[in-house]
Every structure is written in structure tokens, then in C-alpha cells.
Amino acid sequence: MKNLKIVLSVFLLSFILSLFVLYTPTPVSMNDETFSAATAAEHISVISQEPHSVFDPVAHETVRQYIKGQLEDYVGSANVSELNYTSAEVGDNTPYDIHDLLAVIPGDSETGILLIAHYDSRGHVGRAGELGRSYGAADDGYGIATLLEIARIYGKTHLTNSIYILATDGEETGLYGAKMAAQAPFVDHVGFVINVEARGKEGAVYMFETSTNNETVIDFYKNAQLPVSYSLATAVYTVMPNSTDFTEFLAVDKQGINFAVLDDLYYYHTPNDNYENINLSSIQHYGSQIVPLVNEFVNNSVYSDVNHFVGEQNQVFFTILPNVFVAYRESTMQVLHFLFLALLIGITGYLTVKKEVKLSSVGKYLGIIFGMIVVTAIVGLYLAKLIAFIGHVPFSITYVRLQHTDLVTVLILGGMAIGLGYLYYKFVKTEENKKAWMIAGIIINLFLALITGFVLSGATFLFFVPAAFGILSLYVLTFVKNKIALHVVLSQNMLWNLLLIVPILFSLYLALTVGGLLAFMVILLINLTAFIPYVFKQLEI
Asked: Does pLDDT of 475 surpass 90?
């Protein structure tokens, strides 16, 4: 009973802490010195009065003139220019002209940081469930308001490096404003790009995309306050068909990062994306992350080199607690992978020689776990299809636009975790089998970490963390007999696994919707195979 209380206490504490990983800050009221969500909201209230897509020319022009006027007030009219392109220049049989706005806050160096957001709203029906006629409060009022706040804060200050602020047109219909602006002469002086987007209306603001070979980019991103980012997201995004204005600047070999809020996709590209539904805490989170980056860039002469952020390799990174951001280079990742592989071989060999485990048993459980992964993937796929069918919406593995599926997803994942725990408790009885399962679960995770290290390095931490803690826990169980030490180590195993997997699954749900149940269930299962045995072992101590 005492051990059960310890395990439940550690589990509850770890789970509660995991809910704070995606913490968003308290909104700042109107303030002359710092980024203020309240001031940003005032801009959004004006921008989002009417749908203002390229197909709503009067409202579209009203929004453009408002943004231009605000920029002129903040940085001076001489530093604001229009980048106008005729439909013929744009091409693609575009039936309208494109009107970008560019504001420059000059520094001692022409090299600058470029901040981008688009001012057109969604004006037509897109994918299933997108009703169009959005008021653009979040997408991309959040982005435009963030840019205006930065213009207000830095517009009259002395800078070492410059700031370029670009409000693009025609993003929703083809990234046309960004496409044309990326060819403009000022881009030669851009050393870093920050694109500000929105795919929901609330929750944490994710840094979800980087340029390639991002080692220096991620070192720079560490300056952000309350950073929320996972290299898993940036890795997956590279193989998905989605695109933003950032895409056009990657195409001209610029380095930078892309931000978006993801929660409440149901509001995205619909009339519900309006001022009444904005979230001040999320707006403040844009400022918490972006303003420190701007401040670092404009006040440090090292960034005057326009090629400063060109790197040679990527980093693996993830948020583990509020303001706790872990990052390491791919070269370090490979060293860690092979180090822990050697540790796994060592402990497996030792336990085999001591006749505490049989390799045949390890092989048996490897087969069982692999079979469970296959079955889970099939079940997850058809559960997602069933949910889409019941909701009368089209199914896609990355996009099922259906409201109120979060509780269903939690219940499915929770039920699967409980089911796996029950099966382990019911059928894995002997000490030899328990250790064989531990080793098999670690092998699955470490193997996936090694494979993804070569093909999708940003995803490696998802498998490496449970494998690493599993290996360390196995060593402690083998060589340490002190009960207090065992509880401490096994509790750490639970703590760091939950701090990782809970926010990751929630974030993936926001990005992929309930259509991604296959992925959620498989990822959770793989994590649990290297985690559950130690939970039951702690109960036995």
C-alpha cells in the first residue's frame, strides 16, 4: 500500500506538471515600454471588423490603410513604403493586384531581422469544413498586431541592426505577396526571418518550423521567453504539404523561424475567427517569444553578418517545462545514441550471463510488442475513420475538422494505456520475463531513435528519452539495492516520460486533429513499452 501511494503521488505530480509545459503568460495591459496584449487587441478590433480577403476589395483596402497609418505613426512615414505588383507581374492568372507594405526601422547596419505577417483574411471555402468569410482576427490579426507592437516598441530607438516589417497580401490565395517580396532588393540585407501565423485562436504559441541546418537558429531561439517548440514538429512539417509566407523566404535561402497558435482549429478559416473569440494570453505569448529575439538581434553586432545563421547541421530540441528548453546538435545526438546502445548491449549481456534473462524471451517480447504496434495502428486508423463518419465529415489522417473530439481522444488513449498495463500485469509474471520485456521495450525505442536519426532527426528525442531512462533504470535495478535510491530513480523515469509524452500528444492532436489517432496511439504505445514495466517494478520494491 505504501508503494502504491508513492507511485500514485509521483504520477499525479508528474501529470500535473506536464499540463504546465504549454503555459501561456498573463496578458499585459496597455504599456508604453513592453509588448502589450491589450494594445495588440485594439489593433485586432479594427482589423477584424469585416472579412477582408482579396475578394472584399473595400474592406481589404481599409485594413491596408489602417496598417499603413499605424506603421507611419510608429516608424515615420519616410520609412514606410508600398510594394505594389500588378496581376500580370504576379502571374498564375491572378485576377487581382498585390499590395504589400514594408516598414524599416534603420539601424547602424543595413542587415536586419525581417518580421512577416499577412493582412488578408480567408475569403473562400477551402478544405472541408472551412466556411470561409473569416474576419481574420487570429489568422492573421495576431500576426499583424504583433508586428505593430514591435514597430511601436522599437520605432524611435537607436538600433545596431535594422528591423524590416512586412505585411503581405494574397497569402490565403497563393502566398503571392511573400512570393513577390522575396525577390525585392531589401531581402539581400535580411539576416533572419520571423513569420507570424495562426492556425487556431488560443493556447500556446508554437515555433513550428525552422530553416534547414538550424543549429545557429536554435541557439538564437533560446533567447525567447517561455519557448514552446519540438523538433518533431519542424521535422514533420517538412514532409507535409502545408505552406505559409515563410515558405517563399526559405526558397531564397533565408534562415529563420515560423510561429503559430494551434488550439481551436474549428475556428480557423470560418466566420468564428472574429474579435469576440481572441485570446489575450496567446497574443501575449507571441510577444514573450518574439520580442526577446528582436531585442537580441538589433542590439548585438554579431548579427550584422547577413550569413551569421547559415549552419551545417540541425539540432534536436524540445520543451520539457516552462522556460526549460533542451537542445543538442545532430552530432551530439549520434554520440548519445551509440553510447546508450553500448550500455544496452552491456546490461543485456550481463543479465544473460547471470542467467537473469534469456535472449529468446527478449525476442518473444519484441515480436509481441511489434504485433501490438501493428494492431494498434489498424485500430487507431479505423477509430478515426469511424469518428469522422459519425461526425459526417471527410476523413484525413492529418485533418478531420470536427469539434469536441478532445475528450474522445483522451478516453481512447487513456483506455489503451490502462489496457496495456492490465495485459502486462496479467501475463508478465516471472522476474525473467519482466526483465525481458524491459529490454524489448528499450530496444524498440532505441532502434526507432537510431532509424529516425538518419531519416527524420527531429523526431529522435521522442524515442530516445524513454529508451535512455529505461536503460538507466535497468542498471539501477540490477546493481542498486537501496529502496530509497530505487524509488528516486524510478520516480524520475515516470516524471520525465510524462513531462515529455503528455504535451507531445496534446500538441500532435492540435496539429493533426483526431484523424491522427493512429499516430497518437502508436507513439503512446511505444513510449509505454519502455515505461510501464518500471511502474509495476516500483510497486514491488
From this structure: yes
